[in-house]
Amino acid sequence: MRILIDLTHPVDVHFFLRPLRLWRDAGHEVLLVARDKDVLLPLLAELELAHAPLGRSGRGALGLGVEWLTRVAALARLMWRERPDVASGFGATFVVPAARLAGVRSVAFTDTEQARLSNALTLPLASLTCTPRCYPVCLRGPQLRFEGYKELAYLAPRYFTPDAAVLELAGLAAGEPFVFVRTVAWRSGHDFFDHGFTDTRAVVARLGRHARVVLSAEGPLPADLEPLRYRGPLAAVHHLLAFARLYLGESATMGAESAVLGTPALVVSTSRRSYLDELEQRYGLARTFSHPGQGQDQAVAAAEALLADPATGATWQGRRARMLAEQEDVVAFVAEAVAGRPRS
Predict the structure, then answer these.
(1) Helix, coil or strand: residue 336
(2) How far apart are CA 279 and CA 144, in angstroms?
(3) Which pLDDT value is given to residue 91?
(4) Looking at residues 133-155, what average pLDDT do you find?
(5) 258 Cβ partners below 8 Å, 6+ apart?
(6) Chain centroid to CA 151: how far?
């Protein structure tokens, strides 16, 4: 079988990495197509994954619209030439319409109900759409739910063991308390009307009284914050999240990654995500602060309380164990869904 995977966001690389190995071990041929967005291409180079680069992320509503038209057309031409048996992607904004044009079966994965426009344009065209259990929308087309979160495709214990050696690469000493702070660019189509921090400097200053701050950002930082930027290997950031005292950031995906690792996850965003809500309400592993004016201060106050509590680490690992006991093998689910043998 020939499988085409469209990678449009850096997290897609992690999501498909282990299914990719299963497909190739089973004798399937896999073609990776990659969009130039954030650190996606450098991450593929770091992992030595051969891929076909195709297009750069657009900016603003007009730029994203132009990108959608040109990239869908380019993907369709690629599929007419390569003739895959199935095409897949996370979000699948480009690959599903292209697959429909090329007459190729498509499998979409999504967990972001806020992407209403792209979901409306994309998911009804998919041969199959796979969503986590907590996804709140019943789709019009074929839909298959799995027990778990996309982050478990690369951070479940059977696939990921935190490596303390990564701490040294980030300039940290073993056992040194630190918090991981993440800012995002808010340029995705579903982010246009949302925001997170109102003052990143204030966040860093308050957290810095309790622990060292490691800062990750999609774009430029003020000159005085640049020394705090994480500069280690891109593929190693999840090891840092596993050893952090807590995560505080604007990225919902990185918040969910922290939560499934048992690291307290505090997300500041005026929009919410169903998977973060479930991790909060069902397991107590995450919290979202969505008040447009007070969210930052509320999140930092919660972070200070967690950092002051010596029982926080053990409490979160206990909650993580309960969460993991209720999830399925997401890697096996993804591999089987794309290869055409999903459970009913």
Answers:
(1) helix
(2) 20
(3) 92
(4) 93
(5) 180, 241, 244, 246, 247, 264, 265, 286
(6) 7
Other beta carbons less than 10 A from residue 316's beta carbon:
23
Give residues with Cβ within 8 angstroms of 12, minimum separation 6.
5, 6, 40, 89, 90, 91
In whole angstroms, what separates CA 329 from the centre of its chain?
Answer: 17
Residue 39 CB partners (closer than 8 Å, separation 6+):
10, 234
Residue whose C-alpha is closest to residue 250's, from 220, 228, 218: 218
Which residues, at least 6 apart from 331, have a Cβ–Cβ distance to it below 8 Å?
A: 18, 19, 22, 153, 156, 159
Q: Per residue in 267-322, pLDDT tens?
A: 998 888 999 999 999 999 999 998 887 889 999 999 999 999 999 999 999 999 99
CA distance 56 to 187: 13
Contact, 95 vs 71, CB < 8 A?
no
* Angle, helices 330-339/10-25, rounded to nearest 10 degrees: 70
Quick one: which of 253, 305, 315, 277 has its CA closest to 90?
253
* CA–CA gap between residue 271 and residue 304 (Å, rounded): 23
Of residues 36, 120, 48, the one with CA closest to residue 74: 36
Contact 116, 189 (CB under 8 A): no
Question: What SS3 class is residue 40?
Answer: helix
pLDDT over 80 (residue 142): yes
Kindly state the tokens that stand for 299: 């999140």
- The DSSP secondary-structure symbol of 182 reads E
* Distance separating alpha carbons of residues 145 and 333, to the nearest angstrom: 10
What type of residue is 79?
A: M
Distance set, CA 191 to CA 59, 80, 117, 196, 272 (Å): 12, 33, 12, 10, 11
